[in-house]
Description:
Layout: H1 7-17, H2 33-47, H3 57-71, H4 94-111, H5 129-146
Amino acid sequence: MKNFFDQADAATIISRVQHINPASTPHWGKMTAAQMLAHCNAAMEMALGKKQVKRAWFSYLVGWLAKPMFLNEKPFPKGLPTDPSLLAGDGNGVEEEKNKLIGQIQELASGGPGVVTTAAHSFFGKLTAEQWARGMYKHLDHHLQQFGV
């Protein structure tokens, strides 16, 4: 499965991120390009241990059931709800959020398992570094597909 510890997979996602611009519109959902990039940055910050997100009580009940969906090869379904703690408004605009996201992808790809948080995911609970790398790849792939790139 594709993941950010594979340099070629990271380069592919970075290339796709570079195609996002202020005029990019979603094929589904309500996020603008800036909101999507800010949201993806917040998720990457969680994976890198830069952002602590408290687990909702609901995640303890069903997170373990949904974890296999997070880690398998199938794309995420369209219209999944977004964790409110990972909604970041418009952030700092498309170009700044895009550059920040590319930097975080590079940080994860070059740092390997040692840069990944040991804290639990806000919904899925405990993840290995490899699971974080696969899940973050899949998450970004989902949102880039949302914006047609």
